[in-house]
Amino acid sequence: MAKEKLEDLEWTNLGFKYRDLPYSFQAVYKDGVWQEGGLTEDSTIVLSEAAQVLHYGQEVFEGLKAYRWKDGSLHLFRPEENAARLRRSAERMSMAPYPEDKFVEACKEVVKANADFVPPYGSGGTLYLRPFLIGSEPIVGVDAAQEYIFRIYATPVGAYINGLHPAAYMVSAYDRAAHAGTGRAKTSGNYAASLYPHELAKKLGYADALYLDPREHKYVDEFGGANFFGITKEGNFVTPKSVSVLPSITKKSLLVVAQDLGLNPQEVRIPFDEVDDLVEAGAMGTAAVISPVGSLTYNDEKHVFYSETEAGPITTKLYETLTGIQNGDLPDTHNWTVPV
Ligand code: PLP
Ligand code: COI
């Protein structure tokens, strides 16, 4: 694959796709230690045919964005949270965690090295970073690897779903993760399990699948690539309390933003039977940002939230506040943004 040319990029129409940028970061774990990592121009990885990740799935990853502010400076959003989650995911998958301070430094290095590819302020685009960790040791029996590769690639992106336009979702009869499984870890197997329900949803004209809790299929869990939130009739921000959803950094931030906005945020179990009590609903995540849920269809019954064509006022306010902080247009009172 050829390297991306800067002059070929249309900043306001990037979509959400991989582009091969000049630099990635790589570090290798061998003999019980992480060797010093560094930038590489090689965007390929050479692996043994018996590498652990290819057969038994030791892979964990992250997603975070770099933003170009009005004055041209570049900032990451809460990268230390991604570092900590990668460590927790790695522990769940019995992998050697990558040191958290080195994770943040490596993210900065990748942004600096690819700085020309951070979309301009006001374009709606960002530089998406994908740090990931794989078990690279050749292994035949089922076991954890003793060798790992940590890597970060960067790619400029626009909207993942529909931006602030509502999207329609269907409730899946499948699970993406088990009750006491790996849902809290950001690991490839959860996404592999979501592909079939995702394709099914797409075929039927929906943006994605919403999963219910895997034990009872009674409570709202999350989407394939984003957490769920709702606004109650009383104007409260609610989001599912569940052991099988990914602890989203966007959610963690919006719980604070909602508090600041007087929306009495709560993490609670949300019975699907009661979703009609929500006056607005949305998907939240790094890629999704805040994406309004126009409707949820379950067993041929469609539940509409606020409007199928327009974002609700509270969803809009949350979006403007969060993206305002991320883009440097609003005061960062919680010290979430990190200059590169
Ligand atoms: N849930 C799933 C399954 C995801 O893949 C993501 C994306 O990272 C999220 C939630 C949102 O997490 P975050 O806000 O940390 O990006
Ligand atoms: C992210 O939001 O960073 C994700 O990893 C979601 C992914 C499904 C694109």
TrEMBL record:
User: A biological process (GO) annotation for this entry?
Assistant: isoleucine biosynthetic process
Kindly give the CDD domains that the UniProt entry links to this protein. Answer: BCAT_beta_family
**What is the name attached to this protein's record?**
Branched-chain-amino-acid aminotransferase
Pathway assignment reads: Amino-acid biosynthesis; L-isoleucine biosynthesis; L-isoleucine from 2-oxobutanoate: step 4/4; Amino-acid biosynthesis; L-leucine biosynthesis; L-leucine from 3-methyl-2-oxobutanoate: step 4/4; Amino-acid biosynthesis; L-valine biosynthesis; L-valine from pyruvate: step 4/4
Keyword Amino-acid biosynthesis part of the UniProt annotation: yes
Q: What are the required cofactors?
A: pyridoxal 5'-phosphate
Q: What's in the keyword line of the UniProt record?
A: Amino-acid biosynthesis, Aminotransferase, Branched-chain amino acid biosynthesis, Pyridoxal phosphate, Transferase
Question: What high-level taxonomic lineage is stated for the organism?
Answer: Bacteria, Bacillati, Bacillota, Bacilli, Lactobacillales
Family according to the record: Belongs to the class-IV pyridoxal-phosphate-dependent aminotransferase family.
Identify the NCBIfam families for this entry.
Answer: ilvE_II, PRK13357.1
Q: What is catalyzed by this enzyme? A: L-leucine + 2-oxoglutarate = 4-methyl-2-oxopentanoate + L-glutamate; L-valine + 2-oxoglutarate = 3-methyl-2-oxobutanoate + L-glutamate; L-isoleucine + 2-oxoglutarate = (S)-3-methyl-2-oxopentanoate + L-glutamate
Q: What is its EC number?
A: 2.6.1.42
Q: Which residues carry this modification: N6-(pyridoxal phosphate)lysine?
A: K186
Q: Which organism is it from?
A: Ligilactobacillus equi DPC 6820
The record's GO molecular-function terms, alphabetically, read: L-isoleucine-2-oxoglutarate transaminase activity; L-leucine-2-oxoglutarate transaminase activity; L-valine-2-oxoglutarate transaminase activity
Which InterPro entries does the record associate with it?
A: Aminotrans_IV (IPR001544), Aminotrans_IV_CS (IPR018300), Aminotransferase-like (IPR036038), B_amino_transII (IPR005786), BCAT-like_C (IPR043132), BCAT-like_N (IPR043131), BCAT_family (IPR033939)
Classify the source by domain of life. Answer: Bacteria
